[in-house]
Amino acid sequence: TLPPSPPISHRGLAYSQPSEFIKPIFKCWQNPYSKQNPQGYINLGVAESVLNKDLLVQKIADIRKEHLVDSNTFGYGDFGGSLKMKQAMSAFFQRHMLKVDHELNPDHFLVYAGTNTVLETIGAVICNEDEYLLLDSPYYHALPMDFARRFDVLLESVPLVLKDGQYHVDFETFRTLLTENKKIRGILLVNPHNPTGKLYTEREIQGLLDLCLEFNVHLISDEVYAQSVLDPSKEFKSVYHYVCTEKDAERAKRLEGLVSIIYSASKDWGLNGFRLAFLYTRNQQILASMQSVADMNLVSRDTMLLMENFYSDEEFLQKFIKTNQERLRKMAAKLMAFLDEHSDVIEYVKPDAGMFVYFRTKKRDIDQVKVFDSIMDEGRVMLAQGRFFQDVNTHWYRCCFASMEWEDLELAFNRVIKALQK
Amino acid sequence: TLPPSPPISHRGLAYSQPSEFIKPIFKCWQNPYSKQNPQGYINLGVAESVLNKDLLVQKIADIRKEHLVDSNTFGYGDFGGSLKMKQAMSAFFQRHMLKVDHELNPDHFLVYAGTNTVLETIGAVICNEDEYLLLDSPYYHALPMDFARRFDVLLESVPLVLKDGQYHVDFETFRTLLTENKKIRGILLVNPHNPTGKLYTEREIQGLLDLCLEFNVHLISDEVYAQSVLDPSKEFKSVYHYVCTEKDAERAKRLEGLVSIIYSASKDWGLNGFRLAFLYTRNQQILASMQSVADMNLVSRDTMLLMENFYSDEEFLQKFIKTNQERLRKMAAKLMAFLDEHSDVIEYVKPDAGMFVYFRTKKRDIDQVKVFDSIMDEGRVMLAQGRFFQDVNTHWYRCCFASMEWEDLELAFNRVIKALQK
Question: What is the model's pLDDT at position B422?
Answer without folding.
Answer: 82
